[in-house]
Amino acid sequence: GIQVEQSPPDLILQEGANSTLRCNFSDSVNNLQWFHQNPWGQLINLFYIPSGTKQNGRLSATTVATERYSLLYISSSQTTDSGVYFCAGAFYGGATNKLIFGTGTLLAVQP
Amino acid sequence: EPEVTQTPSHQVTQMGQEVILRCVPISNHLYFYWYRQILGQKVEFLVSFYNNEISEKSEIFDDQFSVERPDGSNFTLKIRSTKLEDSAMYFCASSEQRGGYTFGSGTRLTVV
Distance between CA B45 and CA A49 in Å, rounded? Predict the structure, then answer.
């Protein structure tokens, strides 16, 4: 099955700094999503991005499907950005279309 | 924006008891899922459900677990004879055939 790896595992930033989180996947995917898990444990969907680039405020994401990676950019970070960021991928059309999660990046933004 | 609704948000149960976690997926979605996250670990796939039957299940999803879609809107996960190690956050999700998954807010299950 698909393997999803994320880097870095942990990241500490000062408020206002920018960061890039990376997600590598072992096989072709046609679903790639980024989630933010908030302190209450909720999974907040940030992007559905199987390919291309999308932006939503201070966040943007790029997926290069042919090279099997995706990047999440956080600009001008704020303390509310703290939490765990997960990427997850799935391949439709096989025996399964389950979403496989990476191990996450734990982000701490300090004031 | 359509949501996946999960109830209860928290549940505490005695070891050995049965629990039922409930989910209302998005109405026009066809695929339904349960995931589990033990504290501090990654989100793990448990089971997928399509066309009123299980389409795939993980090694975690043994005979202790069962899923059901009792009516046109609800999707439930039953855990029989709960164990301490079943304590986790349980997420329900739904999707169309192609497209993003929508996750519910989760049920935090604590087995004491």
Answer: 20
Query: Mind listing the pLDDT tens digit for each residue in B25-48?
Result: 999 898 999 999 999 899 999 999
Query: Can you give the length of chain B in residues?
Result: 112
- Tokens standing for B25? 């997926």
pLDDT value of position B90: 98
Q: Respond yes or no on whether the N-terminal peptide bond of residue A39 is cis (omega within 30° of 0).
A: no
Q: How far is A100 from chain B (nearest CA, A)?
A: 7
Residue B106 to residue A43, Cβ atoms within 8 A: yes
User: What distance lies between CA B61 and its chain's CA centroid?
Assistant: 11
Specify the residue for token string 């899923």. Answer: B67
Task: Specify whether the CB–CB gap between A98 and B33 falls below 8 A.
Answer: yes
Whether the CB-CB separation of A109 and A13 falls below 8 Å is answered with yes
Q: Would you call A41 and B56 a contact, using CB atoms and an 8 Å cutoff?
A: no
Does B90 contact chain A (CB < 8 Å)? no
Which residues contact residue A17 at a Cβ distance below 8 angstroms, ignoring those fewer than 6 apart? A76, A77, A109
Determine the residue of chain B that is closest to A34 in CA distance: B100
What the block records as the tokens of B17 is 């008891």
- Shortest distance between the Cα of B39 and any Cα of chain A, in A, equals 9
Q: Does A41 touch chain B (CB under 8 A)?
A: yes
pLDDT at position A96: 65
